[in-house]
Every structure is written in structure tokens, then in C-alpha cells.
């Protein structure tokens, strides 16, 4: 079964990606959605801590689970393993925050005219989210309304599931 993956990306930080994804999840609450956030900053696994030591020793997966909080953090030696693990969870949809240059389909948030010129450099843009006037693009342009974007995602998902060539 093909699981749709859609990235919500932008050229800059603080463009409202997280808030938009929260709203999309709320609008699509009948779906099982997995979310991955791309970070260009160091995350948690501090030098010398147990999970760091396990990975340094060669563990392909190292996890930490908290009895205080209802969560777990999993460190993988290979980023490609993340998608394999998510596929095993059988979500209806995987949303990636960021991943602007990835091979995955994406909705790109545009805030100014200068960014329009950069769109062609970004792979697999399936739609633009913007409140500025944009002309002469062959891809859909969506207002930054979470309900409209959620409907677009549902429509995209139906197209993926009906496409036998994938």
C-alpha cells in the first residue's frame, strides 16, 4: 500500500509550518497521521549520555522512553530507517515539516515575490501556500487557510491511491 507523504516546507524559519501542521492534523483527525520534523540543530543526544554511547558502540537504533512523560525518542544510525519504521506503523498520511530539498512531494509556503523565483529549484512542489498574488505558475496556489489546505491534501491522497503507476 502506498502511504502518501507530504512535506510542508518554506525558504525561511518562522513561516508558520508547525502551526499549519497542527491545524491540518486537527482538520484531518479521522486519519492516522505521522509527523517528522527536520531540524538543522543538534537534538538531545548529548556527548557521553547513554543513548549517545550506545550509538557510538554501533547500535543501529537507540531509544529512550520516559516513565514521567508518555513519549519516546528513537535515534537511528541511518535517516532512511525513519521512513521504514513509519511505514510499519501504517499511517494514512506522513507529514514532514521542512525537508525542502527532499525527494518527497511538498507544499511550499511563499511569503514574498523574491521566493517565487526560487520555486523551480525545489524538487517535487505539488502546491504553493501563499497570500500574495502569484501569476504564471503551473502548480496549484492555495491560500494559507488550513481547511483549504486539508482538502487539497485529501484530494492529493485520493489521487495517489488511485494511481496504479506508482
From TrEMBL:
Q: What processes in GO biological process is this protein linked to?
A: Mo-molybdopterin cofactor biosynthetic process
Example GO molecular function term?
A: GTP binding
Please list which residues make up the signal peptide: none
Question: SUPFAM superfamilies given for it?
Answer: P-loop containing nucleoside triphosphate hydrolases (SSF52540)
Q: Which part of the chain is the Molybdopterin-guanine dinucleotide biosynthesis protein B (MobB) domain?
A: 13-131
NCBIfam families given in the database record: mobB
Put simply, this protein is called Molybdopterin-guanine dinucleotide biosynthesis protein B
Q: What is the lineage of its organism?
A: Archaea, Thermoproteota
Name of the encoding gene: mobB
Amino acid at each position: 500500500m502506498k502511504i502518501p507523504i507530504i512535506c510542508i516546507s518554506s525558504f525561511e524559519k518562522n513561516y508558520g509550518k508547525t502551526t499549519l501542521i497542527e491545524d491540518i492534523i486537527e482538520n484531518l483527525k479521522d486519519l492516522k497521521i505521522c509527523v517528522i520534523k527536520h531540524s538543522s540543530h543538534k537534538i538531545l543526544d548529548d556527548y557521553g549520555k547513554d543513548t549517545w554511547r550506545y550509538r557510538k558502540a554501533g547500535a543501529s537504533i537507540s531509544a529512550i522512553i520516559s516513565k514521567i512523560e508518555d513519549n519516546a525518542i528513537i535515534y537511528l544510525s541511518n535517516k532512511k530507517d525513519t521512513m521504514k519504521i513509519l511505514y510499519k506503523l501504517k499511517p494514512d498520511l506522513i507529514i514532514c515539516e521542512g525537508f525542502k530539498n527532499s525527494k518527497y512531494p511538498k507544499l511550499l509556503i511563499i511569503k514574498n515575490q523574491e521566493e517565487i523565483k526560487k520555486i523551480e529549484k525545489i524538487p517535487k512542489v505539488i502546491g504553493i501556500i501563499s497570500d500574495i498574488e502569484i501569476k504564471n505558475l503551473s502548480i496549484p496556489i492555495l491560500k494559507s487557510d488550513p481547511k483549504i489546505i486539508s482538502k487539497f491534501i485529501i484530494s492529493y491522497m485520493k489521487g495517489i491511491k488511485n494511481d496504479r503507476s506508482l
